[in-house]
Amino acid sequence: MASYFHSSFTTTTTTPLPPAIATTEALSGLHNHSLMISLNPLVVSHRLLDAPLHPDTHVTSSSTPSTYLITDKLPIPFWPTTISYTASFGNTESGLRTQVHAPMGVETIGEWDVLPDKGDKEHSGLVLRETTTVKCNVLLMPYIRATMGKSHDELHKDFVERLLEEQGKHI
Is this structure's pTM higher than 0.85? Predict the structure, then answer.
């Protein structure tokens, strides 16, 4: 049954990758699910589950998706709290696909891709593009959009820094 109080939005974050980062290195980072989870500044813990808890997981990938139980600390003023949810991660040839099932009917589907940068003539390298669609209650939408936007911007920055650190290079 559809709810009139549910809606969806899609965000896209594109981050140029420094020339020192090759496609294989970026894909290796994306395919390291534990790394991707731990780079999110909201995450306080995560663990791999034996089997998906949600049979309707729609992660299409080149490998068997892995499902994790993740706990985030939510930045709510005067009322800090944690929330736990499941997330499925599946590797693809160009990156990573994710699907999150969170409390209160929040669901996300994310696509992370390493692509050639065709939009910036000065930067002829690669970009990391994340496109995420969120389905949630309309009353939660502003909070989720702001919180996810801020944490994923930081995740992108930390992802690039981590790849450079692994090569012994710095920005």
Answer: yes
pLDDT of the chain, 171 residues: tens digit per residue: 456 789 999 999 999 999 999 999 999 999 999 999 999 999 999 999 987 655 555 555 556 889 999 999 998 888 889 999 999 999 999 999 999 999 999 999 999 999 998 766 566 589 999 999 999 999 999 999 999 999 999 999 999 999 999 887 655
Element (H, E) at 106: strand 106-116
Q: Which two tokens stand for residue 61?
A: 């990938």
Q: Order across the sheet with 6-17: list the strands.
A: 6-17, 126-137, 106-116, 95-102, 81-92, 66-74, 43-48
- Distance CA(69)–CA(139), nearest Å, equals 25
Query: Residue 21 is encoded by which pair of tokens?
Result: 């980062």
> What is the largest distance, in Å, between two alpha-carbon atoms of the chain?
53
**CA–CA distance, 140 with 102 (Å, rounded to integer):** 12
What six digits make up the tokens of 30?
A: 């994306």
For residue 49, which amino acid is it?
L
Query: Do the Cβ atoms of 138 and 121 come closer than 8 Å?
Result: no
Cα 22 versus chain centre, distance: 20
Say if CB 92 and CB 115 are below 8 A apart: no
